[in-house]
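Quick one, probably user error.
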């Protein structure tokens, strides 16, 4: 079977078979198919789309292009969660130990931040000593002994995705729903979890700007997972403004610990409890949302979620003193500067994309894969949408490595101030959880 035949078939809008997709993906990974043919095929997929069955077959081929982890010898059911990426999204740091503390093993492969979105691996690595470059046997050992393990993505996990993603980036084919869904789900399937809860973000600080787009992507990913025998659910959540208050790696670790102590921001607590509830439900650990919530709230109240976090940090080599004395352990920025409101009224928007870009300019994120980041810097919001604000009240604190009277700081300040919008009238708090898609939502994507 020639690569040109496969490209032509897709160009003409026909459905590729499982064998054709398998051959194409094998050719990509072996190097037999050159970049220009992959690029042509990507554009054909972008323009013609894919059926559900084609997307499932593509995902399967991509997942099996490298190592597929088998966790059956570790536990009868391992659960994972995946966020499509946002600003201030530190939910994994809370949800993973919270769910693990109820006795349900959580095994997760996470990414690093890129552009305005943060990454869990970067956040965790701000804890001194903590390693996210676990080998498969270290990952399994940690999961077996502690019921929780998180590692960065290794090169042998779904290698076809790495090749396709790099080419999508330079051929204007990133925003194809079947390509996004197969990219995300191939890595999830290869990582071996039995249950996967997707956190699909919608809004200014998210990849999906509309609820319809997010729902189409979520439904397709649910169908792919379901088609491969995984238990699935998806939460669609608002990312118009940052989640929680902290944006920046070490700052987000502090906020996650506060949340595990039951003292986190209300929106972050709501997001974490919603995701954790779905994780317990897909695993059959609870039969109803109420039962799940009761288990989770018990774990928060009696301290076992926080204890599990400490155990996890230690198991992956991190300094456990971070739990009680984060200020002594985590890196802190040279300058912290409060920005104040110049008007009074109500906050009606805190644009997540702009706050994410401001954090990126401070050094909290990277513009290109492999860039170094500064774990200490970031922004802590003191006012968010719906909050009342008086003239001179603090809006946020900027943690920076450059002085407040420097040109780069002024640029960041301008960006943050531009992210805030005010109203003279009271503004309601935005709804955070927009929709939950459970197994009943399946089979609507095609
Ligand atoms: N995340 C991924 O892993 N792949 C995509 O295509 C988009 C987001």
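Nope, works fine. Designed sequence:
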């Amino acid at each position: 079977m020639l690569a040109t035949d496969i490209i032509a078939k897709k160009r003409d809008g026909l459905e590729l078979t499982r064998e054709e997709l398998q051959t194409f993906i094998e050719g990509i990974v072996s190097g037999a198919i050159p970049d220009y043919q992959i690029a042509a095929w990507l554009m054909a997929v972008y323009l013609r789309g894919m059926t559900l069955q084609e997307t499932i077959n593509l995902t399967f081929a991509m997942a099996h292009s490298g190592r597929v982890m088998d966790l059956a010898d570790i536990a009868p059911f391992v659960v994972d969660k995946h966020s499509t990426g946002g600003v201030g999204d530190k939910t994994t740091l809370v949800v993973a130990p919270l769910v693990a503390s109820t006795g349900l093993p959580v095994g997760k492969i996470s990414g690093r931040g890129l552009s305005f979105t943060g990454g869990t691996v970067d956040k965790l690595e701000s804890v001194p000593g903590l390693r996210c470059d676990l080998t498969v046997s270290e990952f399994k050992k940690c999961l077996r002994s502690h019921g929780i393990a998180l590692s960065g993505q290794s090169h042998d996990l779904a290698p076809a995705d790495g090749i396709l993603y790099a080419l999508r980036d330079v051929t204007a084919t990133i925003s194809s729903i079947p390509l996004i869904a197969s990219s995300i789900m191939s890595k999830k399937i290869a990582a071996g979890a039995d249950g996967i809860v997707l956190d699909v973000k919608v809004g200014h600080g998210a990849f999906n700007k509309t609820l319809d787009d997010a729902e189409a992507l979520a439904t397709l990913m649910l169908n792919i997972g379901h088609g491969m025998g995984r238990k699935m659910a998806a939460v669609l959540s608002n990312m118009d403004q940052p989640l929680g208050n902290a944006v920046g790696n070490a700052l987000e670790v502090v906020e996650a610990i506060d949340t595990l102590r039951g003292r986190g921001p209300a929106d972050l607590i709501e997001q974490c409890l919603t995701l954790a509830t779905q994780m317990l439900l897909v695993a059959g650990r609870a039969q109803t949302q109420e039962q799940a919530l009761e288990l989770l709230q018990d774990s928060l109240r009696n301290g076992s979620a926080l204890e599990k976090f400490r155990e996890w940090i230690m198991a992956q080599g991190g300094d456990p003193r971070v739990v009680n004395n984060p200020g002594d352990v985590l890196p802190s920025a040279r300058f912290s500067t409060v920005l104040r409101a110049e008007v009074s009224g109500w906050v009606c928007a805190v644009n997540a994309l702009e706050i994410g870009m401001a954090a990126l300019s401070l050094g909290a994120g990277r513009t290109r894969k492999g860039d170094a980041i500064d774990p200490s810097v970031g922004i802590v919001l003191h006012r968010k949408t719906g909050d009342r604000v008086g003239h001179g009240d603090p809006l946020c604190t900027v943690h920076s490595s450059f002085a407040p009277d420097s040109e780069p700081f002024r640029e960041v300040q301008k960006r943050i101030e531009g992210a805030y919008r005010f109203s003279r009238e009271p503004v309601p708090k935005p709804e955070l959880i927009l929709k939950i898609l459970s197994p009943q939502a399946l089979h609507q994507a095609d």
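Residues 180, 183-184 surround uracil (CB under 6 Å).
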